[in-house]
Amino acid sequence: MRRRIAPVLASFAAVALVATLAACSNDSPTPSSSTAAAAADVDVCATPSGKASDAVKVSTDLAAEPTATFDKGLTSSETERTVVVKGDGDELEAGGSASVSYVVFNGTSGERIDAAGYDGGVVPTFTASVDSLMAGLAKSIGCVTEGSRVVSVIPPADAFGTTGNADLKIAADDSLVVVVDVKDVVPSKAWGADQPAPEGLPTVKLAKDGTPAVTLPEGDAPTELKIGVLKKGDGAVVAEDATVTVQYQGTKWSDGSIFDQSWGRGASSFALSGVVPGFAQAIAGQTVGSQVIVVIPPALGYGEKSDSNTAELAGETLVFVIDILATS
């Protein structure tokens, strides 16, 4: 569905969210079952507060970018989080997504690294899953309520590992101090009004949680892009250069097998500029809350299979069911 690239948000989000776009690409396999199992073993809701996170003094004016004061060299052995302001909105469940604003500091130097979602800037969407987001960030927001401000201290093991990040001037032993404002919890599935089944396209049956089951029609795959709207949402129109949050399932027309899906992992957020053309064309111009089905021929997917194009999905006609949950 997407190329293996980081989404283009703020500099920190681009690195922190790289795992969000790591599930379906033409140059790397879908995460293995063992990887998924390891992610499932992490309880993003069980993050404790501690001496490190409690030591950070954070401003409480939710209308302004937060300030944070702490002694340089702050670190912890595990991710800690302290709720600075407790909101009274919906809870962000494990695997769920929410729009957030954040500020990131280097725990060693105290330097402000990056911020997003303030002063009218792009408000990112984070998914509370270590399969979709940097582990320390997922542990910072899991089961936090809308309207909350939390501060977390994230050790290297839950951030950039033993290599650090030279672009962000983060050394291998630097912790991160992150202040996150959890804004709107994103629905987990499309909520739009049901539309008549598109003629000639695969049929879709939804489980109670929204997971689709696709039945392919008999006959050859279409040679042109085919798009149908299954649910019509009442949200904003998705721009061609937007960043979106979606649930999706991808099926091969050739054998009906599912080659990748976000269901079971949590919604994915990415820029439309980073996906194959057919996928982007299916979403751009649609409204948030909609569910669409698209049949993508190889020319608008991963290309025809050849000696120089041996990608797993090369030459395949792909069917995606996409729930459009948010856009920015």
Summarize, please.
The protein is mainly beta and 328 residues long. Helices cover 10% and strands 30% of the residues.
Descriptive overview:
- This protein is mostly beta strands.
- Helices cover 10% and strands 30% of the residues.
- It is elongated.
- Residues 2-37 have low confidence and may be disordered.
- It has helices at 11-16, 33-40, 51-54, 135-141, 277-283; strands at 57-58, 68-69, 80-85, 97-106, 112-116, 125-127, 148-154, 176-186, 193-194, 203-206, 212-215, 226-232, 243-252, 258-261, 268-271, 291-296, 318-327.
- The two termini are 19 Å apart.
- The protein has two domains: 42-186, Roll (Chitinase A, domain 3), CATH 3.10.50; 193-327, Chitinase A, domain 3.
- Strands 9, 12, 13, 14, 15, 16 and 17 form a seven-stranded antiparallel sheet that branches.
Please provide the ordered H/E string of secondary-structure elements: HHHEEEEEEHEEEEEEEEEHEE
Overall pLDDT metric:
87
Instruction: Report the helical percentage.
Output: under 10%
Number of E-state strands: 17
What's the arrangement of secondary structure elements?
Layout: H1 11-16, H2 33-40, H3 51-54, E1 57-58, E2 68-69, E3 80-85, E4 97-106, E5 112-116, E6 125-127, H4 135-141, E7 148-154, E8 176-186, E9 193-194, E10 203-206, E11 212-215, E12 226-232, E13 243-252, E14 258-261, E15 268-271, H5 277-283, E16 291-296, E17 318-327
Antiparallel strand pairs: 1-2, 3-7, 4-5, 4-6, 4-8, 7-8, 9-12, 10-11, 12-16, 13-14, 13-15, 13-17, 16-17
EC number: 5.2.1.8
Protein name: peptidylprolyl isomerase
Catalytic activity: [protein]-peptidylproline (omega=180) = [protein]-peptidylproline (omega=0)
